[in-house]
User: Fold these one by one.
Assistant:
Number 1:
Amino acid sequence: MSSMWLAKPLVTSFVLKGHYGLFFHPVNSLPKYALRFLHCNRCRRSGIMAAGLDTINESPSSKLCQENYEPLDSCYTAEQRAVILQRLNTATESELTQIKLLRGRKAVNIINYRNRHGPFSSLENVTDVPLLKHKSAITVFDSILKPAQNMEKRKGKVHLAKFIRPEVDRAVLEDANSIVSIVCGTNKIAWTHMNRALTVLEWQQEECKSFLNGTYMASDYLEDISTVISRFPATDFFVVEKPSISPQNTSLYPVMAHLRTVEAMLFALLSPVREPGRSPKVLNMMRTAVGRHFGLMVGESRASGAETVRKMMTESVIKQEPRVIFPHSLVMKHRNSFQMSSRNKGEELCDALLQAVAFFEFLQVK
């Protein structure tokens, strides 16, 4: 057992003219160590006690398991396996979304797996759930075992400046009663008016016939965009989606130029004359940030959020405390807007709604 050793406090007398030396501790002042289980890479299940090693204050060898693809059940003690399985087998969907990596589709997939196959009998079974493989499963397990520490890390990582531009004081954003979330497509503009209680006040889209038509006539673009803006309700902030198309992707340059043109016009037409010191009224929100919030990112690309929106609409009808509140009239109006058979029919509508939800949920995490 070559890699195993015991931590002992080092006490060395190093006296300098009557003062305590660098490593000297007076009597009764020895450091107090908490006992931890010490594990080596050859015998992970050994229960040898060691003192004061912070690196052992983790799930036993979970990092090694990630690197070496060890069987998941062998990476945790019997007590830890029981805690993990109990949480995964009994948590509701909303409770699952509080666990790291389980936002969006992964939580839904766990519920579906339990309904079809019954409760998980082993940790290895979890990798049978779509979108949950070996490394991501270990991250989920460790998050279950240390939820408080995980929440502290998440809180420390939330910087609104990474998601919302230009930077605005957080207190100003939190005072907003409502926003209008705006998403531009290749032939339409969609918007969602939502208040801080996550109630959808208005949700619609408008086709713009001049978009990507001919030579990008500025006057035609201006007419279409001005018509759309005239239908926007009064609100505290207008939040415009920031496209995620890379300038290096030359094949999509016409689309990128179109989206940037519409984005610039929206900022120009919606921004009032600002007094010095006042916050901007029009903001950008990163498309990729919204995608990560709902677990829609596949590599650098963002998948459709139609399934997430359909689920929100269903919950609004059947649950007493849904994540998002939809008026009955909007549910009836858009219930068929996100069918897979209707290509891109409601993609902008869907994205405008998700952006509004993400905006207010980002503000809830401080």
Note: Confidence is low (pLDDT under 50) at residues 1-25, 30-60, 151-158.
Number 2:
Amino acid sequence: MSDPIKVLVTGAAGQIAYSLLYSIAKGDVFGKDQALILVLLDIPPMLPVLDGVVMELQDCALPLLREVIPTDKEEVAFKDLDAAVLVGSMPRKEGMERKDLLKANVNIFKSQGGALEKYAKKTVKVLVVGNPANTNCLIASKSAPSIPKENFSCLTRLDHNRARSQVAMRVGVSADNVKDVIIWGNHSSTQYPDVHHAKVSIKGKEISAYDAVKDDAWLKGDFISTVQQRGAAVIKARKLSSAMSAAKAICDHMRDIWFGTLEGEFISMGVYSSGNSYGVPDDLIYSFPVTIKDKTWKIVEGLSINDFSRGKMDATAEELVEERDTAVSFLGV
């Protein structure tokens, strides 16, 4: 068994983390022979709850889990990290302006980015989950200038999995028979779930998603809005935000970073935009189709983009530019 790696989860007393930590600790993400030290960060009022989470992890008696470190201190949490999953963020409260939400989160992610810069390994892989995830990820990256921008990504895999599942259910196949759906842009309701390049396997034969679904109006209408609004639909039904599915998507995302994407397949993740062929502005964290090999992602270039897609890709980019500019204006404060 290899030496333990150190993995941080923030917001560790929250409900996403509660669904996530067992999967990480039992080897679903970093491998079945990779020992782990789990570091759990949360705010001081949550420390008693965190103690309960630690007890449960101990009680799972997992062979890979060498140590669990609960803390409310960044200098402890970010020390010598190999991977960080930043789940904790300021949630939107009723009557809160988006600008106020951005400001509160800039403070959190500026501080955590600074702690990554100061304490973590320069090779650390950072996944930002806490919303607004794209912009929080950008702020963390800007606050850790000596860690390569490529090491930062944000979660749009949940949207990707939602899109994949919607197509699979519509066609009547299992989700693993659908591949190459794309989430473009922001992890918000402006995101663009795109199946123009997606493929569906039916009885061993691969055909385009449009040919498989045979309902263009649905693919350009209800399919898109269902994926865009799915988080809100879950909250309305459960009175809580997506946790089980978010944790599963985090596992998928980090496992792909660690072990690479499947040959001949791409996935969606929010990554740093600089000089891509899709006309997406630079200096954003924007969700693209990517492949991953040797822990390095690469944007899938050269996919044809029609006018319908172009309009939706531009709209979500505009929202991200606005978010970025507002957030960056708070950085100096």
Note: The chain is about 45% helix and 20% strand.
Number 3:
Amino acid sequence: MGNSNSCCNNLGIPPAKGPNAVGCSDFMMDHTVEGTFFRLYYPCVAYEDAEKPDWIPSREYFNGLADFMKINRGLSEKIFDYLFGSFKIPAAMNAPYKQNGKCPVVVFSHGLGAFRTLYSAICAELASQGFIVAAVEHRDESAAATFFYHGKTEEPEEKEEASVTKPNPEAPENLVEEWMYYRSLKPGESEFPLRNKQVKQRADECIKALDTLIQINSGKKMENVLGTEFDWMTLANSMDLCRIAVMGHSFGGATVIEALCKEVNFKCGIALDSWMLPLDEEINVRVKQPIFFINSEKFQWAGNIMPMRKLVPPDSTSTQRKMVTIKGTVHQSFPDFTFLTGNWIGKILKLKGEIDPQVAIDLCTKASLAFLQRHLGMDKDFNQWDHLIEGKDDNLIPGTNVTEIP
């Protein structure tokens, strides 16, 4: 990891723009596959020379991305390390939490073949604006890779051949690290049953992360298996538990809707370029909270917009349910990849659209902040971007660009 000769030295994940410096730390509670694992982004005490974590935390994630993309691990590890090995996340690892009133909370769900670090531009921006954000790493075999532990005396979890065990010098005492990689559809396997099962587990993992945050907020001593330097006790009484939202991209967008159904503490949801296939058909009648769909121009299609329209009817004047499309964007305009490749590689790999990635992510975060302020009842100035929720901007389309089936 950490190839200093990155091919594109002028590239990088943009620093957050809000008034707070941003810290991040990883939290794993209960070492098993049943536990919770997330990266927390939070307002922190600013200091010079703060250590910024690697964007890709370890080589196993490169292997997972290779599996997801169905390419050779050995070759792709070298290519990925060359392209992405030197990039850092725009947050200070384990920096002290900055006490400043109570922060609203966002739980973030990643897309298919992603993991907890890949949406750092969005998560760090929210933290810089005063949110505490938990970016969950899912254990439903939809992440490119993830890990957990089993005791040295325990048998490894009975999982598909997807997982391998290996000793890790950094593993907590008496625990052995176990990696779980992306599970592809088997030949002839129907997609819906797998994705529907996964989306339900993902929603449960978002709720479990929220429950963990609630316990941390109560001042309860929590055992972080990863033993990071961050003092989790400093987060006691730091969160505004009346103001909690759920947000996610692609499969994470479907997870947002499933989580809203299951957990009333999530007061609203933001779904970025949501992939709707995993959801039960009648889900629309079970979701009561406000939802904001922010779509890319190139990913959506009529069959995917249709279930969204059950939640956001085209003629709706409701302030609760909104949909906008960002012009010139592709599906990968939301994760950090869009900032980390030059134009031609970005276009070939469909990591970049026609729009400047910074303009796109700014529209996404500003519209999200306005929606969060409106539906969490926050006393901030994010309402200056209310017009973006309505799609009123040269780079936005109200609703969708897709020709809808009547």
Note: The two ends are 51 Å apart (CA to CA).
